[in-house]
Structures are given as structure tokens and as C-alpha cells.
Amino acid sequence: MIGPADDELIHRALDGALSPEEAERFRARVAADPAFGARAERVERLAVAVDRLGPEEPPVGFSDRVMAEVASVSPPRPAWHRRLASLPGKIGHQLFPWSTHSSEQGNHSSEAFRRAGMAGGGVIVAKKALWGVAGLAVVVILAVVYFNGRTVDQGAQGAIGAADRYRGAQPGSVDAKPGNAQAFLQSDTFDKLIKNKDIRGLLGDPELCQLLTNDAVEKALKDEEVAAFFNDKKLMEALGDADVATALEAVEVQAFMADAEVQLALADDTVVAAFQTKLWEAAIQNHVTMKIFGDAEVQATLIKRDKLKLAKLFADAETAVKAHKFRGESAVKASEEAAVQKAGVHAALNNQLFAEMMADPTVQEALNHGSEMAIMLGDESFQQAVASGKVQAMMTDDNFQANMQAVARAFRNVRFQEAMKAHALALFVDVQFRAAMSDPDFMAVIGNRNFKAALDNQAGLQAELKKR
Amino acid sequence: MSFPVGEDDDRVIVERCLGGDTAAFRTLVERYQRVLFTVAVRMLGDADQATDAAQDAFVSAYRKLQTYDQGHKFFSWLYRILVNECLNVRRTRRLLEPLDAGLASGDNPHRTAEQAELRMSVRSALGRLTPAYREVVVLRHYAGMSYVEMAEALGVAEKTVKSRLYSARQRLGEDLLNWKREP
After folding, report:
1. pLDDT digits (tens, 9 = 90+) for A76-100
2. Is residue A115 part of a domain?
3. Looking at beta carbons, which residues of chain B come within 8 Å of A68?
4. Do A232 and A226 contact (CB within 8 A), yes or no?
5. Which of A62, A209, B20, B128 is at a distance of 20 to 30 A from A37, taking alpha carbons?
6. Could you give the CA distance from residue B73 to residue B90 in angstroms, rounded to a whole number?
């Protein structure tokens, strides 16, 4: 009897949509079940008949006719230009005086667009997108003012930028030092990043943008070995492994990984070395051994054996607390920055530098990357991320650029995000921890059912640690 | 049957067009004219109308090139424009009735009579499918698109694509090969 599931299998086989395992199952089924084989054969016969009709050839000269018609219509213009050209009132007039909607200027539009190297008229678009673009400009201008640490000499910066380009420096050669938002937007780095689909997706995620401004994340991502860690194929595969995923999703494992003492312990080379030994691996496979390890008294005894190490752990913990305090101060500073940005919106909209910068062809070129870019420009998180000196510093870092796809992939991983929220990312700057996490044996340990069971008995271990 | 696609390259060409290089659009026309015309012929069943629909689709795509979302495949976007053009043609000629397969072009006089008859039968059977069923068959068999690509182009879920394709093939099988009607 052939059921709907069988039919689906046959059609998917015909369409080349089976996995190797399914294909194997399909072949075995055809060989073993004559009714199934006959069903598959009749579907194939139909497909052959349909395919035999083949493609149709377009009439001779079809492409010439299309191109002749294309030549007679107005060339398409980038989405950003439409949006900027439709900026209302004073700002729109300042930026694109030729594209004003008033009739008195209408006669000059063609000439002005030719001068600007663009053709066609302005089109009114959704206000949201429009203000999104304006918003980015505001953030960028404020970032320039803020990070340069001085009041901008109105008009001077735009003139200097223009002069630099006139001298022959290409957009890509602009020095994108952290903090200079205009230079950053004009840089090769920004161009490269924004053309990268993964990075665009990354910057479009508000939560991830927030994480990128975190000191610990920034530090970790700029570390060469962390970059190598992100590119570790085995680790990425381990993160994608169903068993490891299940293990990492387990409350007890998350609590274990997020625990400060556990993290510090994992940062200790002897502990990590222990995890990496085959003896340990064999031990955790053994129910009896795990039961012993899970016993609070045994754990306490093991800890008592090395008091010096315990003292070291507490000393490290004090450093960690200081680092945490620093992160807290940074968060306050960020919120103050946000408040300044909001308060300065009106003033910035009337700032001459805003007009000059947005009218700058190089900036426009940097911003010109299709509708997806336009959506990103309207995203508040993206605006804040780009305006952040930290994000700029990180993105201009050679290691980050070299590994940005791997980083983006890691950031997209839900479990990795969870780990970062638990401040576990700080661990990644530790060589031993990275070595452990890159080790398939260690990942096997994390995913081991017995190991998780042993973790259930963490209470005794924690109590003992606190006593000391 | 599959058609040449080059989505990475497509995006570069689109950028060039948006930068004012109109001639670059010819590459896209030449790359997709065959598949677009084939789809139009299969959807409309009329070579002249298919020519108009495909041509209008290309011109329309050029006009609104700045709205193309580069996160998606260019052909998927182009295909949706073509579908709208085909719908416009249908509206103007009130083409809700079955297609007249005999009007479609593409016959090769050198092929055998048997082959010609089979091709005619397939065309007729395709013409008797509902538009929703017909388009999945066309996209799968004449555009070589995967389930995922079809779902993107049609704006429906992948499982809907599969379901329509299986049902369409069942109808074609009943029509062409005398399959027993499924309950």
C-alpha cells in the first residue's frame, strides 16, 4: 500500500531533494517493494514527458527590443537617493535644492540632476524610512562631534574631506580611525562590511548590536586567538550538534557554565588539562565513577587537597569583580550618550555639516547598497552601533575583518548568544578555555548525559566553595 | 531542465545599472530571456503574448531596479514581475478559460510526429491546470528551481510548493498517462 509519505518521498527523489540517507532509503525501498517501484517509475515517466517539452526560444532580436525600450525610460536611481531627495522642508532644500517639490524650481531639475550625476525626479517615500536616514545622519554627525571631542568648525570638515578626495585619495584609502564616523562611513572597511550579507544581518539585530558595544565582547573579538576560535570548524560543528545543543540548553549546564567559580576553574590550566585527558573522558562514561564525582563529600575532599589553587581562584575573582564594575560604568555612559543624541536631534538637523556630509558623493556612495541597506539605516540599533567608537574600532580590526563571516555565524548561534548574555564570553579571552572548547573531547564531555547528571549535585560543591 | 543563473554576479550587474550603466542590463536580459519567455509561454499559451509579457517584465524590472532587495535572488524578484505581467495579459484578454495550446510556439518541424503529438498533449494538459498548479510545474521543470527557490519566488511556504507540485503532477498524470484519480 502506497501512502502519502511514500508519494512525497518519490516526488522529492524526482526533484533531487533527498538527503544521502533518504536517497539510500529510497533505493532500498524501490528494490524491496515492487508496488513502490512501480509508483516511482510512473512519476518518472510523467516527468520525462513534461521535460520533453523543453524550453521555448524567445523571438530573434528579443534582447535588442528590450534594450531599445529600456534606453527610452528613465534610468533607475538608488533607493537612498530617492529618500534623501524627498527630505522635507529646509533640510531637503539644503541637501538637494534641485529636487524641491515647489513648482518654481521644477524647471531646473534636469540640469541639476545632470550636474549631480543622477537623473530622474524626486519621489516621496514612506516617512519612516526617510526619518531613518535622517536619523543616521544625526547620529553620525553627533558621533563626529562627540568622538572628536570638540565643536566642529562648520563646513570645514566637509571641505577637508572633499579636498582629500580631490587630491586623489580614494574612498577606500580614508583612514578609518575609531571615533571618526565620517571617515568610517567612507572607508573600505565600511564598504566591505556592508556588502557582507552576514554582517548586515548581524548589525540589523538590536540585541547583537547591544552586545557588540560590550567591553568584554569587544576585547574578545579583537583577540587573535578568539578569531581563530571562531573559525574552528569542529567547534562550530559541535555547537550545531544536536546532543551538544541539548546539553547546552539544559538549565543545569547553563547554570554551571554561567557560574563565576566554574568559569574561573575552567580557566585554570590544570582543570582544563584534566578535562582533556582520555582518563577523564573514560571516567565520565562510567556511571559508578560519575556517582562518586557527584558526591558532595568527595567533591569537598578533592577541593581541600589544593588550598593554594583555591586562593588563586579567589584572587582572580576579585579582578573579575573589578572588570564587572567597569562594564557597569560603561553602560551608564552609553545611556548618557543616547540622551545627548536625542536632545541634539533638532539642532543637528539644522547643522550645516549634516547637509554637507550627506550631500557628499563619497558618503552617498558608501551608503548606496540597495534597499536592504536603506532598511538598516532606519534601524536605531544599527545607527547606534555605527556611531559607537567601540564598534568602529572592532570592525576596523584586521582580525575581525579576516574572520567576520565566522564571527557573524557564531553570533547567529542561539546558544552562543545565550553564553554571551551569561558573560561567559569573557572566558574566550582565556587560552586554556578556548583550547578546551575547541577540543572535541571536551565538547563530548559537555554533551554527556552522565556529566549532566553529576552537575545536578552542584549544591554541595558550591556550598563548600563558599565556606572557603 | 535548468537555466543558467548567477545570483552573485546579478547583484554586481544591478549595482552597475543603478550606477548609470544601462548597457549592463543587457547581460541580465540575455541571461534570463529564455527562462522568462518559456515561463510566459507556458503560463499564457500564446507566443506573441508571452513575448509582450516577458519584454514588459524586463522593462518594468529595469524601471524599479532600486527596489530590488539584494538579500533575495534576482530571478525570484524578476519572476514575480513576470507573473504580474502575465496576470495583466490575462485580464485584458479574459483568459480564465483553458489555454489554447495550439497557439504556442516552439514546434520543431524536424521532430517526429509522435514527439510532436506528445508535446502538444503536454502543452494542452499544462493549459488545463489551474494557474497555481501550472506555475509550480513550469518553475520546477522548465526553470529548474528548487523548492526553496520556488517558495521565495511565489511568496508561499515550501510545504505549499511541494503540495501544489504533487497535486499538479497527479492531475497531469491523470490527463496524460491515464493515472487513476486519487480520492
Report:
1. 655 444 433 333 333 333 333 333 3
2. no
3. none
4. no
5. B128
6. 26
